[in-house]
Specification:
Length: 504
């Protein structure tokens, strides 16, 4: 059975250990792996810039620099004009690779001497300073070189080997800056720090080079799995012709405080468009008319302080869109927290839990959808702390609240409290960076829960649907795309069998 190498994501330590074990299992030496890595990078350059383009290869002290030294030799043999700027090699393989470059007459510029003048006439800059495993902040001269490379991003095509220098390969955080690559050729496996957080601003196109040892390496269970289209189509099959609304659940959305009717309306519309059989809104009396008038298919109830009758008929509850943090909102949170069923906690409902947490009922399943600010409040830390290690924050929320959790942001992360691995969504668009997008997502989740999508997959499927709907809605431009523009896209995506039938 073939393996989709791009669907599995690993930590730096997993790659470091697994690479060595896989190389032994495949009877491949580390020197051969370095040769293969350099050859993969040369292939990426050849696809972008034909001979006789001018290359500037910047090498660090370790094996990442060794990859750069080997690439310099291969590129020169292929007909490219090659310059090398480097610091003294320290690893055994890097020392040998550097000597091989010098033996063929290659010249070397000291890294500290690199200046803007050396970039004149250069077509391709290759960053081979630090790869997998960098966790400390960059220091001179490397931080200066990174900034120098980035100042020429408009003039040169920049390729990073394995991981852009300065980017933490486990967290995706720049320390404190990183090379802004047009392309990253990463070795063996995709790393966590390439697919979430700030990484999307630094990696450019990511090319995976498995170096011929994947059959042995990928026996290692991944830390993250990439959410893919087939997960959606697997769980959203064609409906039976005898279906009725009772087959597809009743979503109750609790929110729409005074002056915030729009958030509950967006969540309700998303739940309808994603296939919920019935959708009710429990809102403040000041919001009832606006919501009911805007979407007649919604059953809209003004509630003062009692949700009992609505909770009794609900299949699943979404609480938070436009809820606010008033005494009225707190009363509703207290009631939902005692309800024994699946509850999606979003927005101010999460903020309310952060202030005064409740114990989750045994028969209830809680699903959290925090953005980094809400995650920080749940954990009692800062937004910067969350950004510094998104996967750790995700895991901690799952453990603290025994909640299925979706951490929003570039490279959305999803985790179950009952499993070690997690999901990452590599789809999405900056078009989603607007108020109301999260309300749409909460409605999507509510609809999927009502239709009995398994808990272990529901957040992953919702994240993919929301992200791809955002991409599709932004085809005419990211700026100005509205959350309401996602509704038609969501309707198409939750009917994958019809998309296939029409060739879409």
């Amino acid at each position: 059975m073939s393996i989709d190498l791009t669907s599995m994501i690993y930590t730096a330590e997993q790659v470091r250990v697994g690479e060595q074990e896989a190389a032994v299992a495949c009877d491949v030496s580390m020197a051969q792996l370095m040769q293969r890595a350099a050859q993969a990078c040369l292939g990426a350059i050849q696809a972008q810039q034909p001979v006789p383009a001018s290359l500037l290869i910047v090498c660090g002290p370790g094996n990442n620099g060794g990859d750069g030294w080997v690439l310099a030799r291969l590129a020169q043999h292929a007909g490219y004009k090659v310059q090398v700027a480097a610091t003294a090699p320290r690893s055994n393989l890097a020392v040998l690779a550097a000597q091989a470059w010098r033996d063929q007459g290659g010249l070397v510029l000291e890294l500290e001497s690199l200046s803007a003048g050396h970039f004149q006439g250069v077509d391709v800059v290759v960053d081979a300073m630090f790869g997998n495993g960098l966790s400390r902040d960059l220091t001179a001269p490397f931080i200066d070189v990174v900034e120098l490379i980035n100042r020429h991003e408009d003039d040169c095509w920049i390729l990073s080997i394995d991981v852009p220098t300065g980017l933490d390969s486990d967290t995706g955080v720049a320390k404190p800056t990183a090379v802004q690559a047009n392309c990253t050729v990463t070795m063996i496996a995709l790393k966590v720090g390439l697919v979430t957080g700030e990484a999307v601003d630094y990696c450019g196109d990511i090319v995976l080079a498995d170096l011929g040892i994947s059959r042995a390496f990928f026996r290692t269970p991944p830390t993250l799995r990439v959410i893919q289209r087939n997960l959606v189509s697997e769980h959203l099959q064609r409906r039976r012709n005898s279906s009725h609304k009772g087959n597809y659940g009743h979503v109750l959305i609790v929110g729409g405080g005074a002056g915030m009717s729009g958030a509950a309306l967006l969540a309700g519309r998303a739940a309808l468009r994603c296939g919920a059989g019935k959708v009710s809104i429990a809102c403040h009396r000041d919001s009832q008319l606006a919501i009911a008038t805007a979407q007649p298919e919604l059953m809209v109830h003004a509630v003062a302080d009692d949700l009992t009758a609505l909770l009794d008929v609900a299949t699943t509850v979404v609480i938070g869109p436009g809820l606010g943090q008033t005494a009225w909102a707190r009363t509703l949170v207290e009631q939902v927290a005692k309800w024994q069923g699946p509850v999606v906690w979003d927005a101010d409902a999460l903020n309310s839990l952060a202030v005064a947490p409740f114990s989750k009922p045994t028969e209830s399943d809680w699903l959290f959808t925090p953005h980094p600010g809400e995650a920080a409040r749940l954990l009692g830390c800062t937004t910067q702390d969350v950004a510094a290690n998104r996967f750790q924050a995700l895991t901690q929320i799952c453990q603290n609240f025994q909640a299925y959790t979706l951490l929003k942001g570039a490279g959305t992360l999803v985790k179950s409290p009952h499993q070690n691995d997690a999901w990452v969504c590599r789809r999405g668009s900056p078009a989603l960076a607007v108020g109301g997008s999260g309300d749409v997502l909460s409605g999507v989740i509510g609809a999927l829960l009502a239709q009995k999508i398994p808990l272990e997959q529901v957040l992953a499927i919702a994240a993919w649907l929301h992200a791809v709907a955002g991409e599709n809605a932004a085809q005419r431009g990211e700026r100005g795309t509205l959350p309401s523009d996602l509704m038609a896209e969501l309707r198409a995506l939750v009917n994958p069998h019809q998309l296939l039938a029409t060739g879409a």
